[in-house]
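Retry 2 of 3 after timeout on previous attempt. Resubmitting structure tokens to design endpoint.
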């Protein structure tokens, strides 16, 4: 995912420095080239050899170190960097950067960088809330540095409050958001539905389906990585919530319909991958479900056809994609469904193929439009999401 990307990690003098070893390892596993710069204070918390072992690159500390191939080292590192993350960022280094002080390898390299620079402040709560530190952070924001807000919690000093460095997974997500993908739909608004809706029969029983939300969540994440503003409307799901999306949790089909109706008008691309329960109890609202000792008698009614509604209310220049789950005549039935619903594309799921469908990390689908029918072999749902959005972008002539 990050192959060919050059990432610079700046590590400063904070107890949270030890966590960056895990982040460096995570980045290397994604095939990134990682260079670590440390302040001298940071070496009191973690040994540079740790980073050198994990990254395969020399850990840079001393601006005047002569043990390297000839080049102006801090300039060379800055020129090839795709993104810089300073984590943990101490109050001292934040103050230096905000006021143009470059007196060590880390700060001189930062001064020479033209790529995106992100900081994750980590310090005692009182230090973080100090107005001078806050003023320095705001000054850096003004100069387009991205500040990753610290978490609140128990700190190494024994205090509880704001100032805790976010998890390595969170820091990785910020890096991925910045450089993992070309921003080919930057500024576009993408609406995705995912997961399974649920219709309650009583406090215990309900109607639902096997959808895990994995496909829709993969689509939402891929759209986010490509620079889109993403709204994800989700029913029940077992997938991890994608970062940096507007997440709307719903339960019933009606709740999903209302959320879609509210957000669809402004969307440039709509992808309905949610598996909506087709039926709901007709008389549950007035508690007229009939029961006896052995049976529950329920009158059912169809839920709102969300895809039909979207097709009927399609906006100019809006692209709508739905999903089809057919057990027979998959392609032909899906073609008819696309025409009937008045949508631009339908993704036909091959539920009979091994490794495809619900509850797995792979899928085998066919992308059907008015003029094309593109069969995709079995691949991960993340790869399907990539191919799907690429095809939509091509069709929209973006």
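Retry 2 succeeded. Sequence:
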């Amino acid at each position: 995912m990050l192959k060919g990307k050059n990432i610079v990690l700046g590590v400063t003098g904070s107890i949270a420095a030890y966590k960056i070893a895990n982040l460096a390892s995570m980045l290397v596993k994604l095939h990134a080239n990682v260079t670590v710069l440390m302040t001298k204070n940071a070496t009191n918390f973690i040994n540079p050899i740790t980073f050198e072992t994990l990254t395969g690159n020399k850990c840079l500390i001393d601006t005047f170190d002569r043990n390297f191939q000839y080049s102006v080292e801090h300039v060379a590192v800055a020129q090839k960097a795709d993104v810089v993350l300073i984590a943990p960022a101490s109050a001292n280094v934040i103050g230096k950067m905000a006021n143009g002080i470059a007196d060590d390898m880390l700060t001189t390299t930062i001064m020479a960088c033209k790529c995106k620079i992100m900081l994750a402040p980590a310090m005692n709560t009182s230090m973080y809330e100090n107005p001078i530190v806050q003023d320095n952070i705001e000054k850096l924001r003004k100069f387009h540095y991205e500040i990753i807000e610290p978490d609140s919690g128990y700190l190494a000093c024994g205090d509880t409050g704001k100032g805790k460095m976010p998890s390595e997974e969170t820091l990785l997500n910020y890096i991925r958001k910045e450089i993992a993908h070309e921003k080919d739909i930057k500024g576009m608004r993408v609406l995705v539905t995912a997961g399974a809706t649920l219709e309650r029969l009583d406090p215990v029983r309900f109607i639902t389906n096997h959808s895990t939300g994995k496909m829709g969540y993969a689509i939402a994440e891929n759209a986010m990585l490509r620079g889109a503003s993403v709204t994800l409307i989700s029913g029940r799901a077992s997938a991890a919530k994608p970062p940096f999306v507007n997440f709307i949790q719903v339960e019933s089909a009606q709740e999903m319909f209302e959320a879609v109706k509210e957000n669809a008008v402004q969307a440039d691309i709509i992808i309905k991958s949610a598996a909506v329960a087709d039926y709901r109890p007709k008389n549950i609202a007035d508690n007229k479900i009939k029961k006896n000792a052995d049976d529950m008698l329920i009158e059912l009614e169809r839920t709102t056809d969300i895809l039909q509604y979207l097709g009927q209310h399609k906006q100019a220049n809006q692209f709508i994609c739905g999903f089809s789950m057919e057990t027979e005549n998959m392609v032909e039935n899906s073609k008819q469904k696309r025409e009937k619903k008045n949508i631009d594309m339908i993704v036909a799921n091959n539920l009979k193929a091994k490794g495809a469908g619900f509850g797995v990390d792979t899928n085998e689908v066919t992308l059907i439009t008015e003029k094309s029918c593109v069969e995709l072999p079995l691949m991960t749902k993340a790869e399907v999401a990539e191919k799907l959005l690429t095809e939509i972008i091509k069709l929209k002539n973006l």
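Attempt log closed. The first helix runs from residue 20 to 29.
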